[in-house]
Amino acid sequence: MTDGGEVQTSKVREAHRFDEARLADYLRGHIAEFAGDIDVRQFAAGQSNPTYQITSGGRKFVLRKKPPGNLLPSAHAVDREFRIISALQDSDVPVPRALHLCQDPDIIGTDFFVMEMVEGRVFHDPGLPGMMPEERTQFFDDFARVLATLHSVDYVAAGLEDFGRASGYLERQVSRWSKQYEASKTEEIPSMDRIMAWLPDNLPVDQSVSIVHGDYRPGNTITHPSKPKITALLDWELSTIGHPLADLGYCCASYHGEVLSVGEFSSLDHDAMGIPSEKEFVERYCHYAGRDQIEDFHYFVIFSLFRSTAIIQGVYKRGLDGNASSEDALNYGELAKGRADAAWKLVEEYF
């Protein structure tokens, strides 16, 4: 599959197999759209929670489940994913229709949920291969718009007041991901140690609060089959109530060195390709979010690189243990080092 084309599926990997007949019997009793037998395929993407395409009665659905094996505390929260996409069904944030959550491990071994499958393109490479320059410009404008739209949702009215604590988000996140990193550590990364010490001592003044997606990037969106417009926002595992600029910093992390697993975003000729500069992207976000400016912007980029280092280290550790959702997980050790190094470089440059 070429990036941005039809979403690739394959036979279910050995480590992620389950009793398909049992699942089919269960779903027929809980989702009206299910009829007859099911065909199960596994998506190639999805490093954290194994994700499957379920076909039944000529319709396609998506199932996301917790991975097998011993899991880190609070990780792989498919129940939280289901809750937030359910809460956003009637908002202006494009999300798939949530259909059913199962927390009975006797069905397929772990918690899982089912949602509708939204057809379209997925661009894991943020350079958006195959698009024309004007299409890339339109995509990134929509990308900024959708993020600002998410951050504008009244989370209390949406029933998400207890989805996360409104205050102290950055402090808690630094503490949480430092612990997660230490729990999955396989070797010393000096720059990560320095970042973990620096972040809590340099908290920004801005204390905004909103729904936070937690992993907002092109690869977690579905693009319309022929238009540069986002039709669905996916992978809500890390979502919570927190600081909106953490999402923005995460979006902009790829402007600072080769820190993504796919593509060489920072070295591209952004102007020629129709891709906004970091400054331009932040300006588009501010336009849609109704912000004049952002103080301490690079703190949020550094924080996001730190957090993603901890996440990637966890993926790498699961790869070593044989429990990762993708065979690519064993390549993530060097990626974790690269993200930590990029974060510390920004501290030296801007602080």
CATH class of the largest domain: Alpha Beta
Largest sheet: 6 strands, antiparallel
For the secondary structure, the number of strands is 10
Q: Biggest sheet: strands side by side, in what order?
A: 1-2-3-4-6-5
Order of helices and strands: EHEEEHEHEHHHEEEEHHHHH
Corresponding CATH architecture of the largest domain = Alpha-Beta Complex
- The average pLDDT score comes to 90
Cα end-to-end separation: 42 Å
Q: Hey, roughly how much beta strand do the residues contain?
A: 5-15%
Which oligomerization state do the chains in this entry correspond to?
A: single chain
The structure class reads alpha+beta
Please report the number of helical segments: 11
Outline the structure in words.
Helices cover 39% and strands 12% of the residues. It is of the alpha+beta class and 351 residues long. It has 2 domains: 9-116, Phosphorylase Kinase, domain 1 (2-Layer Sandwich), CATH 3.30.200; 133-350, Aminoglycoside phosphotransferase (APH), C-terminal lobe (Aminoglycoside 3'-phosphotransferase, Chain: A, domain 2), CATH 3.90.1200.10. A hairpin with a 2-residue loop joins strand 3 and strand 4.
In short:
The protein is α+β, with helices and mostly antiparallel strands and 351 residues long. It has helices at 20-28, 78-87, 105-108, 133-152, 169-183, 190-198, 244-252, 270-273, 278-289, 297-321, 332-350, and strands at residues 9-10, 39-43, 51-56, 59-65, 98-102, 112-116, 210-212, 221-223, 230-233, 240-242. A hairpin with a 2-residue loop joins strand 3 and strand 4 (59-65).
